[in-house]
Amino acid sequence: MAKKIFELFGYSPNDKSPVAINARAGQFCPSINGPCTKQIGSASNRITSGVCAITDVDGGPVVICPLRLYADNYELLSAVAKLDFKVKTVELIDERNVARHPGSKK
Questions:
Q1: Which tens digits make up the pLDDT trace of 43-56?
Q2: Where does residue 27 rank: exposed (0-12), middle (13-18), buried (19+ CB within 10 A)?
Q3: Where are the beta strands (DSSP E) in the chain?
């Protein structure tokens, strides 16, 4: 069970720096370098969530935003792929460019 929000719009909810305040005010996602796209609520009462990570029962951060996989040129997604496939390097290809990739069978 989650205890609290660990990260909101890319920053700790307690972060009072100008960049954190601006991110929250503008509902800006630093992971995609644009507006946060996570909407919650009913169709008639939608709001932008902005929650990137929560704490677990031990107080450690748990990333809950799938867009975090895109941050820092897909760094987290690359790390997971390297561990899973037991390789030192991976080449991640944007789905829009798969057909143009030399190894594609499309």
A1: 899 999 999 999 98
A2: middle
A3: 5-8, 28-29, 34-35, 39-40, 47-48, 51-55, 61-63
